[in-house]
Amino acid sequence: xxxGRYSPYLKGAxxxxxxxxxxxxxxxxxxxxRIFKYIDQFDPNxxxxxxxxxxxxxxxxxxxxxxxxxxxxxxxQTALTVDPSALETMALEDLIALLKGMPSALYEVLxxxxxxxxxxxxxxxxxxxxxELSRQRLTRARKWVTxxxxxxxxxxxxxxxxxx
Length: 164
Known about the structure:
- The protein is mostly helical.
- It has 8 helices and 2 strands; from the N terminus they run H-H-H-H-H-H-H-H-E-E.
- Strand 1 and strand 2 form a beta hairpin.
- 20% of the residues are buried.
């Protein structure tokens, strides 16, 4: 079994939780160590290898992100400023960068549920919270997005009030 073919997919999953490229590599290395360590626990009758490996990588990313956040904790949340003209031609990476301005607790749940496809129960377990709190955070994350963006012509565009 060649797990190397999953590397780009796992890197993309980790990148949604860890932003520094060097840290992403560290997390991927730890994730592959854990994948190999627990490979005997993988049951092909219960699912595919790729989602199983992604869950491990995301767990490592979340755990490592929390650890590093405690180490580098800064008072208050940093506001994200963006040049309004750049928003007109927003690419996916630009959108992700803006979403990273969302409070991290909301961002993590949004990613786990909507992007990675985990259930609230699974996300809650990964984040050490209740499933109900996961639902609340997803609702708040959706509200955060709808207060800042609108869907126009099939594209997500920033609302004028949040461009300054």
